[in-house]
Amino acid sequence: MMKNLLLILLLLTVSSCKQKGILNENDNTTERLEEENPVKERFAKMEAEALKEQYSGIFTEKGDSTKLFQIRPTGISTLPIQQAAEIFLKNLSASQVERTTFTIDDEEWRKWCNVDNGIYDRQGVSLKELTDNQKKNALSLIQESLSAKGLQLSKDIMKTDQTLKELNNGSLDFDEELYFLTIMGKPSSTEPWGWQLDGHHLVINYFILGDQVVMSPVFMGGEPIITTSGKYKGNTIFQDEQNMGLALMQSLEPEHQKEATITKFKTGNNNLAEANKDNLTLNYEGIPVSKFSDEQRQKLIDLIYLYISNIREGHDKVKMREVLEHIDGTWFSWVGDISENAVFYYRIHSPVVLIEFDHQRVVGVPNADDGKPSRNHIHTVVRTPNGNDYGKDLLRQHKERHHHNN
């Protein structure tokens, strides 16, 4: 009798513990998932650490002039961008507007990352959740802000994420429409405002003040670079950025190639100015462009324009004039060899622009990572050093002139 009683009590205890375990499991699903995703946790911690520092910008150890960027008219209207943003916002629901809009100096500007959506949480509304009309308005904002080339490249990068979805058994971490829009400030012809597009391999920060535009930081990348199957078979990106960079390096004299080379050994990923690197200290390396021949200098200018020309027509010329003013203070550096099929990294660094191109290890294509960099995974970064990423220096000047109490 006593044995039976003890057995019943034991079974009740086990059953009770099991039920509590199930309840606790249901209650803490999100927490458990976070614990099971250490990579996501690591990226969140990296961002949190970066945001502890007030923005200052990318500088060399010696620093450059802090008066490189001035508020001045360009004569190129930004009204079409403003109107597109107003239409986009007008057609969102109240809850979508709340999630999408931030103040002009909100740290949302600095909350971006190039990794996939499985390991990074983004702000704003995604293209995927929008109605067809809302999506059309969102794409119109991007279209008005970029050149035709820049818009097409952006769409082609999005396509690579759809290819990764196909290659990874329909994983929800990837999708051609998982790209999130936020608006900072109120669209205006006189007050500063801007927008951000944030997603896997595609991040655009776009600041506007009057008829001036600052488009940086910009991250553009992709994997696979050449799509060989699925919905977007044939989609190909970054061939000019790759081939023109290599052609420039190959055109240098042997002694200048040696001077430009940081190391001949390309064993990993080399980009330095990606997410969470807003306050990077980065010295000039490689060879100064002042040593280039006229032909080599033109090759470099053409390469720079390849990146700058992603911005809308007119403002691309404004930025290039700024670049050319500092062309003799520009440096070119290289990692890797220079054979026809080489994998490599290059950097173009001046007081007013920082460009990086990097062949990366394979990550998203299953069973393809051999531990070495590949031409099938590319990252590029464009920054405005010396304090004007996100238009921060122009914003500071505007506040000093018009908002002394802010």
Automatic annotation (TrEMBL):
The keyword Signal applies. Keywords: Signal. It holds the Pfam family DUF3500. Residues 1-20 form the signal peptide. Coiled coil: none annotated. It comes from the Bacteria. Residues 366-392 are annotated as: Disordered. InterPro entries: DUF3500 (IPR021889). This is DUF3500 domain-containing protein. It comes from Flagellimonas iocasae.
